[in-house]
Amino acid sequence: MPLLRGLARTAAVAGTASVVAGRVRHHQDQKFARQDAEAAQEQAPAPTYAAPPPAPAPVYAAPAPAAPATDLTADRLDQLKTLGELKQSGVLTEAEFQAQKAKILAG
Q1: Any transmembrane segments, and where (predicted)?
Q2: Angle between helices 94-106 and 74-88 (to 10 degrees)
């Protein structure tokens, strides 16, 4: 029996040593994997971000068409009013009125 006890004790010690060695190896593997990951992260280039696309050009409404230029000054308007009154009162004929009106508007 002492022989069996010695064998059993040896087997128990060897089994325990094997389990402990497996745990140590597993712990070391995790430790080295963590260190490798940290080193890879430190060596990795910083992420670069693309610039946002430029904003589209603003769309403006077309300007309103300019009113036709009238060079009628207050003096010319007064002359046209007087001319109209002379025509209505019968002093000027239609032909005379049109001729004078053209002169006033021509400037």
Answers
A1: none
A2: 180
Lowest mean pLDDT among 37-46, 50-59, 68-77, 93-102: 68-77
- Residue in 4, 27, 7, 5 with CA at minimum distance from that of residue 15: 7
Range of the domain at 93: 74-106
Which residue type is seen at 31? K
What's the pLDDT score for residue 65? 73
pTM over 0.90: no
> Is position 58 within any domain?
no
Is 66 inside any structural domain? no
For residue range 18-39, what is the model confidence (pLDDT) as tens digits?
666 678 788 888 888 888 888 8
Q: Could you give the number of structural domains in the chain?
A: 2
Residue 10 lies in a domain: yes
